[in-house]
Amino acid sequence: MQTLFAPTVWLSGRLTFSRKYLLIGVVVLLALIALSQPVLQHADATIRRAELERAGLRAFVIQADTLMVLIEQRHVAIQDATQPPPAAEQQLLAAAQRHPELADAVTRLQTSWDAVRTTDEYSRDPQHRFATRTATINALLSLMQASARLHRLNVDSALDAACDLLTVRLPLVLETLGKQRDVLTLDLVELASYALGAQVVLAEAVPSLKTGVAQLIERRPTAANLQHALTVLLTGIQRQQDTADRALDDRTALADLSTLSRANLAQARLLLDQAVTAADAYLVAHIERLQHTQWSIAAILIGTVIAIAYLFAGIYLSTLRSLKNLSQGTAAFCSGRLDTRITIDTRDELVLVARNFNTVATEFQRLLEVIREQNASRQRELETLVHIRTAELAKSNAQLRAAGQRVQEELMLARSMQAAILPQDFPNEVTWAIHAAMYPARELGGDFYDCFALADGRYGILIADVSGKGVGAAFFMAVSRTVLLDLAINGGPPSEILAHANDLLCERNPMQLFVTACYGIYDPRNGQLLYANAGHHPPLLRQASGSITALDCAQDVALGVMDGLTYTDYTATLALGATLLLYTDGVTEALSPRGQEYGDDRLHAWLKAAVPADGAEALVNALVADVASFVAGAEASDDLTCLVLCRKSGELCVDTPLPLLDNMTVLLEHHLHARLGDIPPLAERVETALAERPDLALAANLCLEELIVNTVQHGLNGESDRLIHVRLSLSDEWLQIIIKDDAPPFDPFTEAPVPNIELGLDERPIGGLGVHLVKSIMDEARAYYDGSGNLIVLLKTLHH
Amino acid sequence: MKTWNDFGLLSLVSVLSFGVFHAAVAEDPLRVIAHPAVPVERVDAAQATQIFLKQLRTWSDGTTIEPIDLKEDSPVRDEFYRQVTGREPAQLRAYWARQTFTGMGVPPRRAADDAEAAQLVKKMPGAIGYTATEQVDGSVKIVLEPR
C-alpha cells in the first residue's frame, strides 16, 4: 500500500492545502469535460447532420421546382416545335456545383441540356424533343438522388422512408405521370404502350409512398394533412390503373388516362410540397431538441463544477480555520500564554490534533508549575544560605577590620614611638642652631636623625637611611640608632664610631638590611666639623655668601653590608652665617605626579635661595614645604629626612630668646651690663622673685654673683658695655637659672680647676673657688657655647 | 402485364416481316461511310450496330460519334438495318420508343436521302453514315461494305 500510494503521497507532501484542493478540482473538471465531450460531440455531429439534411431539403425543393419546370417545358415542347430549349437552371447548378461529389451528376445534367439544344437545331421531331428533355429530367433525377445521398437524407433512420418518398418515389411518380401525359399527347402507338406499362412504376411506388407518409406523420403528428393528400393521390392512381386496364381493349380510354395523369401530377406535386414542409419542420424541431440537449449538458457540467468548487471551498475554509486555530494556539503557547487551549468545532481528524495539543499543554503547564515551585524553593534556600554567609562574612569582615584597626593602631603607636625616640627639641644657641625632621613614607620609617651634646661641649649630628621600608626597616633603624648613639655619646671620632657600629650591625642583621649614615661632630666654639660618611649623600654646605658645596666624602660602604670595614674622617669649617644641610634620598628622589625627581639641582637651587637668618627650623620647614609642593600630593616614594645646622653670623645674643623647658614658669627675666655694680640690683630682683623660698633666693644669688663676676672678670675681660642675660624659671621640681653672655667660648665648669682648699683665699686662682661653690649648691650645672655666646644652665631641685 | 404482352407482340410482327423486305433490295450496293478524320479504317457489323443504336458514342480517340440515319420510310435504311444489325424496322421503332420513353437515348440524326447523308458525313467530324448510291468519292471513308 505504501509503495502503491508513494507518488501521490509524495505529491501531497509538497502541496499546500489550497493547491491540493485545486489539483483535485482540476482533475474532476477534466474528468467531467472528458466524459461530457463525447456526448456533446455526438449532439454536435447530430445537429450538423440534421443541418446537412435541412440543406439537402432546401436543395431538394429547388430541384423539385426545376423538375416540375422541366416536365412542363417538355409538355410544351412536344406540342410546339418552335418552343426554345429550356435555359439551364442557374440557381440549381450553382448550388450543385458547390459540392464536388455532385460533379458527375451536374456534368450529366449540363450535357443533357446541351444535347437538348443540339437536337433542337436539326430536329423538330416531337419524339426527339421528348427524348432529349426526358434525358435531362433523368439527369436531374440522378442529381436529386446524388444530392440526397450527399446530404445523407437516405441514412437518417428517422427519416429514411420519408427521404425515399421525397427524393426517389415522388419525383419518379411525378416524372412517370408527366411522361404518361406527354406520351399520350404525342399519340404514338409504340410509346402509348409504354405509357400503359408505366402504370407499373406507379403501382410499385404505392407502398413506399404509404411508408414515407406514415413516417412523416409519426415524426410530425401535426402533418396529418399528408395522409389526406396521399389518400387522394392513391385514389387517383388507382383510377388511372383502372383506366389503363380499360385502354387495352378501348383505345379511347387513353384520353381519360391523359386527363387522370394530369390531375394526379398536380396531386403528387401537392403531396411533395406538404412532405417537404413536414420533413423540414421535423428537422428544425430535431435540431432544436439537440441544441437543447447540448445546453442541458453544458448546464449540468457547469452546475457540477460550481457544486464541486463550492464543496471544496467549504472544506478548504473549514480546514484552514481549524489549522489557523491550531497555529494561533501553538504560537500563543510558545509566546508564554501557557493557559492556551485550542477548540475546534469540526468532526474531522484535526480535532484529535487539537485534543493532543491541549493534553500536552496541560501537562507542560503542570510540569512547569512543579519546576517553578522547585526553583522558588531552591531560591529561598539559596537566599537563606546567602543571608547566613553574608552574616558570617560581615562578622569576618568586622573581625578583619578590628584586626586591621588593631594593627593600624599598633602601627600608629609604633610610629609615635619612632617619632618619640627621635629628638624633638633642638639646640638653638646664640651662635648656632640645629633643626631636623623625618616624614616616613608609610606608618613606619627607615630614616632617622639625631643630635646630641657631647661631654666636651661639642655636638653630634647624625643622619641615616635604612634600606627598605616598613616594620623591618623601622626595627633595623631603631637598632642602628641605638648602636650609633651608644657609640657616639662617648665622643670618639666619627670614623671609629661608624666602623664599630658597622661591625655590631653586621653581627645582628638577619634580614640582610643595611643603613647609610653620615655622622659629624660640630664644635660650636670654632665652627669646626669632624665627620665621616658611610654611603650617604655628602652634606651640603652653604656659605653666608650663598655658594653651595658638597662636603668631601670617601666612597665608603654603608653600614651592615660587611664587617671589618674602616671609614675616613674629614673636617670642615662652618664660617659665620654658614649652613650645613644633611638629607636622605627621600628629598632628592621625591617624585612629582609626572614622574620627575626633585633632584640635586633643585635642592641646590633651593638651598642657595634659602634665608638662614630665619633659623634652622624655618629652613627645615621650608625645605619640607618645597618638596611637598613639588610632589603635589603624590604618594611619597621614600622617607624624607633632613637636618639643618646653622652657624649664626656672630651678632650679640641680647635678643636671642633663651630656650624654655617644658612645664617651666618664668619667674624673672633680667638683663645687666658686665659691671660688678649691676649685681646688687639683680640680687634684689631674685629675692623678690623667690620671696616665698628665701633659701632658694640665697642659693641663686650666691651662684649668680660668683658666675657673673667670673664672666665679667674673665670671660669679657672687663668690657662693661656687654650685656648679660639672666632668667629664673620654676617647675614643680626644679629651679632653673640660665646665664647667657656673648663672650668667646668658655666653660667655667670644665676649665675651672678643682680648688685647692688648703690654699689661702688670695692664693686661689680667680673664679675657681666660686665655680666649685656653684657646683656644690646646684644639683646640675652646665655650660654651653651656641655659636653666639656661652650659656650656663643651673638646676636646683626643690625637694630636699 | 398486359402492356408488356402487347409490346412483345409488336416485336414478333417486326421479326416476321424482315425476311420479305430483305429479298426485295438484295442487289443495292450498301456501304457504311465515315468522315475521313475518324480514327478507324474499318468497323465490323457489330460495331456498326452499336454505333447506330447509340450504344457506342465515342471513337477510340474520344471524339463523339455522330451517326447519320435515314428517314424511316427509306428502303436503304431498312436494308442497312436488316443487313448490318439484323433488326427489322418495327424492332427499331420499338427500340427507339423504349429509349425515348425512358430518356435513355435519342434516335440518330436523320437525313432525307443518301446524298444528304453522304454530305453530312463529309461535313461533320466524327460522323458515320451509310449510303446505297454509287457515287462515293474520296471525301469520305468507306469503313464497312456489308456484302
UniProtKB/TrEMBL annotation, chain A:
It is found in: Membrane. Residues 317-369 form the HAMP domain. The chain crosses the membrane at residues 21-40, 295-317. Residues 431-647 form the PPM-type phosphatase domain. SUPFAM superfamilies: ATPase domain of HSP90 chaperone/DNA topoisomerase II/histidine kinase, PP2C-like. Its main location: membrane. GO terms for biological process: signal transduction. One of its GO terms (cellular component) is membrane. InterPro entries: Bact_Sigma-Reg (IPR052016), HAMP_dom (IPR003660), HATPase_C_sf (IPR036890), HATPase_dom (IPR003594), PPM-type-like_dom_sf (IPR036457), PPM-type_phosphatase-like_dom (IPR001932). Keywords: Hydrolase, Kinase, Membrane, Phosphoprotein, Transferase, Transmembrane, Transmembrane helix. Gene3D superfamilies: 6.10.340.10, Histidine kinase-like ATPase, C-terminal domain (3.30.565.10), PPM-type phosphatase domain (3.60.40.10). GO terms for molecular function: kinase activity; phosphatase activity. CDD domains: HAMP, HATPase_RsbW-like. This is Serine phosphatase RsbU, regulator of sigma subunit.
UniProtKB/TrEMBL annotation, chain B:
Residues 1-26 form the signal peptide. Keywords: Signal. It comes from the Bacteria. This is PBP superfamily domain-containing protein. It comes from Allochromatium warmingii.
